[in-house]
Design a protein that fits this description.
heterodimer, A: about 325 residues, Enolase-like, domain 1, four-stranded antiparallel β-sheet, B: about 750 residues, alpha+beta, Aldehyde Oxidoreductase, domain 4, seven-stranded mixed β-sheet, globular
């Protein structure tokens, strides 16, 4: 591990000032410490934000508000989360392992780095880790990589589960930086790799995630997260789908679909959603909508199966949501 | 004597030490003044080290040494080869030359005052290479297939043939001829390889994770040109191994070399990633099985051709095609075994070595044949059950395969199974049931043990054995207590020191047969000595009694037929002063070994549920029924079996070390990426044992248990996947993508 300085500021302002000057935030550390041990990350100055008042989960009118420092396990077990946004609880439980969920913060979850194996190998080319060094995955082993949103410079999949649910639910996030606070949709946090895969998110220097706000509504109850993988826990998604349906009088009035494991960012499928609106919640409608999901997909040598698995996962997730009483 | 201790479900005698953290593993034996070593692994798959910028990192904080082939001493590497070392080739000599033979080969070692400093410098060390393209894919046409040289010497591994298998298969009315692939797997025990090395003059102590202490001693002595008695190896506990610690790998040499270089004790622990480089793996295999049968399901011809990967510098062989010529009755059988030499490190034994891989192919093919014939898979095996070992033309010492199928199928509920593929459902899920035969040889190797009867009534028992998890501490305590007639609480069994009486490697399911028999012999010898003392002691009530007229009962010596309590060990030892100390050794009677074919058999049943939409495969239930001779401790035996089944689930559905063909690097050398079952993947597992008395295998009547529990699980699951989906997957592991379009 590269030597570093660890600071534990008492105020959010001090933390932001330090980060604006180049320091890195650390909360649960479940991604960062791992990568520091491999020297994939070599921050010289770390700001421990765990003492800052950024935790907690509360309800504000129609909104569920989740503090950036709330732990994955805490959010998943929270009664309000389970009641108002079961999709979030389900996606969290499907993520990581119990040990990791006890440590990992919600803000950190959104900002976690990719699981591409070459990103983690200092002796392999990776434009995300070392801009200009090439991408070892494109011609290497890429079964776990993305088929949507890829570029010739990076094909790494965004690994978060709960981010997929948050994008499906039109969650927003409040961030605070040297210039004050701003809010924007969670979906806009994530950048496509393009020719700058080392730039992963849209936070400005020093900006700190304060909280995540999830709007509620009648769709929230009929919402499910399906994560498809070869073992039952502690594996990143081959394909996952977060779906929510608003069905009235046997007709789909509103549909939300976001998918994981296939995109370089959590992937909202608005074409599929539009296809569903006005139809009955039946398998045929689900299949017709899901057929649109892999349009524009660019499978790599080892992940063609994802283009097949993606629509199947969406269909099954929609069925599960449709079955919710 | 009271009711036998053998067969009782005694709880682990070391259980408390393990769960309270007082059990000490190799890396726990920190030494005063100890430094830390970190290996620098080659980042190319084939080539030569051109330059190592050692001076750059020698200036970094805390660095004591940077050792490369340039400044490492030339080590003698005297010839030494144990039964677990490949019979042909020469072990890797570390830091002796500039050649890089495979990705991850150690090219330098950094020693520092703290682990952090050593890791930092090891990462910073710049090594430049001359690089060539390695060949790491056994399926590549350029990969040369060779006849293993030792196969001409070792009966069991040679190409074998009886009758005319090719002709019989060609003419058979019903035929199966398929190819089966199994991925490379790594053992991935929880405990990483670790060695602490400390020199005292020319004497070396190693606290080192090992399944074969006396060979670690001999191997390191040979590498450094020392007399074996100058090396002591200590390892009282092992956090899982599955075969990876059978051989003495380069890191042990490196720890000793580094400790000598810096003249301080040195601790070296491999990273998880490094455990994919130089500590062996289950070799990738490709097999062809061709079966010919009559319409009634009698086998007329069996062909089994297997190929496994090995390194360029050693010919690793395993029992890939061994079971095929004795498992079923057939007049025409031909087996063949080849190796593909690649630019990788040498594979080694991994639980159920060879047999687990071979039987996946054979038992998949038998299942395929059963569908082609329209005969129940178990009935097919019944119709081909041999009366004798037809390869050796001699009787089995015992064989309970059909009883295993009966017992297992009843518990499993095989009768519920509807034969047609894709015919069983639970709601929307496809249900499949599969079965397969398991078998493993009942090995036995010479071993010795020591018994010491102390004045306080305790018995100390010692052997240089290991306990990687099966419960050796407990089961050997039971054996000693049984033959001494003492309660187990009065027996202290010690293992894990090379200085104790010699034992074979802790693998191959032969520890109970070998070490247990030696302990029995040592106990009987101790009793004989104690009896001789008792009759020679003038103050003893048995003074001048004839030893032949005495008997031992419940730890007491008395005249045969007499009602008195008799003399306890404590009585005898206390009267005569010094403890009674006896050694015993045991080996299989070669004449009996010549007369009988000795194997364990079992029947494994698996139920899977498969999601027809997204292809998720989950095992729901496994039943294994085994005929393994006498069961020393049913609690431990069940634990062994369920552990093996879990390994089998991994083999069937998850485990695969994926190499980047461009440079031979494993890309998933990480616990998050190399999939093994987690708790949520482990279903209801049941292990049953048929009552089997085998008077021939050894005096204890035990055939050994451990390896067989993994053998057979993967084909049972694969056969269940076919039954559920109608899609035959002939490549392990079976992943979602393989059944998605079923």
């Amino acid at each position: 591990m590269f030597p570093f300085v660890l600071e534990k500021p008492d105020s959010t302002e001090d933390a932001i000032a330090a980060a604006a000057a180049g320091a890195r935030y650390i909360a649960g550390g479940t991604t960062l410490v791992d990568l520091m041990r491999e020297e994939v990350e070599r921050p010289e100055r770390l700001i421990d934000i765990n003492r800052l008042p950024l935790g907690g989960i509360r309800v504000e009118g129609e909104h569920l508000v989740i503090g950036a420092l709330a732990r994955m396990a805490e959010v998943a077990a929270d009664a309000n989360v389970q009641r108002l946004q079961p999709l979030i609880a389900e996606s969290l439980i499907e993520g990581a392992s119990p040990q990791l969920r006890n440590m990992a913060s919600m803000g950190g979850n959104l900002l976690q780095r990719v699981r591409c194996p070459y990103f983690r190998m200092l002796d392999a080319g990776c434009n995300k880790r070392t801009p200009g060094s090439g991408c070892a995955a494109i011609d290497g082993l890429n079964a776990g990589h993305a088929i949507l949103g890829t570029s010739d410079h990076c094909v790494a999949t965004h690994p978060s589960d709960v981010a997929v649910a948050l994008v499906a639910l039109d969650a927003t996030m409040r961030v605070r930086g040297p210039q004050g606070e701003r809010s924007f949709p969670v979906e806009e946090l994530f950048r496509l790799p393009g020719d700058t895969p080392h730039l992963e998110h849209t936070l400005l220097p020093g900006e700190l995630i304060v909280e995540i706000r999830v709007p509620g509504g009648p769709h929230s109850r009929r919402a499910r997260y399906l994560k498809v993988r070869d073992r039952a826990s502690y594996e990143f998604a081959l394909v996952s789908a977060a779906v929510a349906l608003l069905v009235e009088d046997g007709v789909i009035r509103q549909a939300r679909i976001a998918v994981g494991g296939v995109g370089t960012r959590p992937w909202r499928l608005r074409d599929c959603e539009a296809e569903l609106v006005g139809k009955g919640p039946d398998r045929q409608a689900f299949e017709e909508a899901a057929r649109l999901a892999a349009r524009g997909a660019r499978p790599l040598r080892h992940n063609h199966f994802k283009a097949e698995l993606l629509p199947r996962t969406i269909v099954r997730a929609l069925e599960m949501a449709g079955e919710v009483a | 004597m009271s009711a036998s201790l053998i067969g009782r479900p005694l709880a682990r005698v070391d259980g408390r030490a393990k769960v309270t953290g007082t059990a000490r593993y190799a890396a726990d034996f920190n030494q005063p003044g100890q430094l830390y070593a970190v290996i620098v692994s080659a980042t190319v798959g084939l080539g030569r080290v051109m330059d190592v910028a050692a001076a750059e990192v020698e200036r970094m904080p805390g660095i004591a040494a940077v050792i490369t082939h340039r400044n490492a001493p030339k080590l003698p590497y005297l010839p030494h080869r144990a039964v677990i070392d490949p019979a042909v080739g020469e072990r890797l000599h570390v830091l002796q030359e500039d050649n890089v033979r495979f990705y991850g080969q150690p090219v330098a070692i950094v020693v520092a005052d703290t682990l952090d400093h050593a890791e930092r410098a090891a990462t910073a060390l710049r090594v430049t290479y001359e690089t060539r393209q390695p060949l790491v894919d056994p399926a590549d046409r350029r990969a040369e297939k060779i006849v293993p040289e030792a196969a001409t010497r070792a009966r069991a591994l040679a190409d074998r043939s009886r009758g005319d298998a090719d002709g019989a298969v060609a003419q058979a009315p019903v035929r199966i001829d398929e190819t089966y692939d199994i991925a490379r797997e790594n053992h991935n025990p929880m405990e990483p390889h670790a060695t602490i090395a400390a020199w005292n003059g020319d004497r070396l102590t190693l606290w080192s994770k090992s399944q074969y202490l006396v060979n670690e001693q001999a191997e390191i002595a040979a590498v450094f040109g020392l007399p074996a008695e100058n090396v002591e190896v200590i390892c009282p506990f092992i956090g899982g191994a599955f075969g990876t610690s059978l051989r003495t790998w380069p890191h042990v040499t490196l720890a000793a070399l580094a400790a000598r270089h810096v003249a301080r004790p040195v601790k070296l622990v491999l990273t998880r990633k490094q455990m994919f480089f130089t500590t062996g793996h289950r070799p990738r295999t490709r097999q062809r099985v061709a079966l010919g049968a009559t319409p009634e399901g009698r086998l007329t011809g069996v062909i089994h051709e297997g190929m496994g990967e090995t390194s360029r510098y050693e010919q690793f062989m395993e029992a890939l095609t061994n079971v095929t010529d004795y498992l079923y009755s057939c007049p025409n059988v031909r087996t063949q075994y080849r190796l593909a030499q690649l630019d990788t490190s040498t594979p080694n034994h991994m639980r159920g070595p060879g047999d687990a891989s071979g039987i996946f192919a054979l038992e998949s093919a038998m299942d395929e044949l059963s569908y082609k014939l329209g005969i129940d898979p178990i009935e097919l095996r019944r119709r081909n059950e041999p009366q004798i070992d037809e390869a050796e033309n001699k009787p089995f010492s015992s064989r309970s395969l059909m009883q295993c199928y009966e017992l297992g199928s009843e518990r499993f509920g095989w009768a519920r199974r509807t034969p047609k593929p894709r015919s069983m459902r639970d709601g929307r899920l496809l249900i499949g049931m599969g079965a397969a035969t398991a078998t493993y040889p009942a090995f036995h190797a010479p071993a010795s043990a020591r018994v010491r009867l102390l004045a306080d009534g305790l018995a100390e028992v010692e052997a240089a054995a290991s306990d990687m998890g099966p419960g050796t501490y407990t089961s050997m305590t039971q054996v000693a207590a049984e033959f001494l007639g003492l309660p187990p609480e009065q027996v202290r069994f010690r293992l894990g020191r090379s200085a104790y009486p010699q034992t074979p490697s802790h693998g191959g399911s032969w520890t109970m047969a070998s070490v247990g028999s030696a302990i029995r012999a040592a106990c009987l010898e101790a009793q004989a000595q104690a009896a001789r003392r008792a009759v020679a002691d003038t103050r003893s009530p048995l003074f001048e009694a004839s030893v032949g007229n005495l008997e031992w009962s419940a730890g007491h010596l008395r005249r045969r037929g007499e009602a008195s309590t008799g003399l306890s060990y404590q009585d005898i030892v206390a009267r005569t002063g010094a403890p009674v100390e006896a050694e015993g050794s045991a080996q299989r009677d070669p004449e009996v070994a010549e007369r009988y074919s000795m194997h364990s058999f079992g029947a494994v049943f698996a139920e899977v549920a498969i999601d027809p939409d997204v292809g998720t495969i989950r095992v729901r239930h496994i039943v294994g029924a085994y005929g393994i001779g006498r069961v020393v401790n049913p609690l431990l035996a069940r634990s062994q079996c369920t552990g093996g089944m879990i390994g089998g689930i991994g083999m069937a559905l998850m485990e695969r070390t994926v190499l980047d063909l461009r440079d031979g690097r494993p890309v998933n050398a990480h616990m998050a990426d190399y999939l093994m079952p987690v708790n949520l993947d482990i279903p209801k597992l049941e292990a049953l044992f048929v009552d089997e008395v085998d008077p021939h295998v050894n005096p204890l009547g035990v055939k050994g248990l451990g390896e067989i529990a993994l053998v057979g699980t993967a084909p049972a699951i694969a056969n269940a996947v076919f039954h559920a989906t109608g899609k035959r997957v002939r490549s392990l592991p079976i992943h979602i993508e393989d059944v998605l379009t079923a």
